[in-house]
Amino acid sequence: MEDKKSNIGIIPDFFFDIIAFIIPGYTILFLIIANFYIMGHPLFEKYDNNINLLSISVTLLIAYVLGRLFEHLGYLTVHDKYFPFFGKAKKNKPKWDIVFDEKQPYYSSHFQKNLRIKIEAWLKNQDGKDIMKECKVTKKDDYFNLIQFYLRERFPNIALYEKKQNATIVLTRSLFLIFSINIVLYFIFLFGSVDSSNIEFTLNGFLWIVFHLISASVFYKRYHQDKIYHAMYIFEAFIATKKLLKKQNIETGLPKIIVET
User: In this predicted model, which residue has the larger pLDDT, 154 or 127?
Assistant: First the structure.
């Protein structure tokens, strides 16, 4: 049994590294090379096309390190903001607000009420109501993180999918940063390697910039949508595994809330 759990932990960690770090790392390497190609730079005219195991290993290592770098940079600059580089930074909504937000509800009022009761009951020994009230004021995700950790440790199959969701969140956040930063890198390479008198408008260069702007916008929106999907999955999995709606009230015919500890 322990070996099975160990393997379950290794597999998602392996794919997490590929999705969250290696893919973004290779993406930025490819875009940097493509910058010089778009500019018509002779840098790679004498490039040796022979690929060997050493070059693949070195490139993989560089891609992984770059992916790690953008993951941390994304956490510092994008993770808790709506528009990190334009105007006053605005905090993201905490994950609990995705369910309990009355202005933009993702669930029915009955589901929200049942979920709130269940969380309070589950956190009874830790002052559930007080924790939820404090999280609402401070905009922290303490009880959400407790639920997430509980599901990870108790249900390995949920942990598999939940780790994949986290990897996707890191991926889209990093790709947003990569496409945004490469616009700046393109102009730095352009003005740094080409004489200003020889710089002229080209359709390829224009389309390259437009492609980056569209890609950055798409991945930024996708990043926030992935965060919503992740929070909804955690709350729905919590309801399902704790069997909140298990029996019906004989008098009213409505679902009766069963509190399991």
Answer: 154
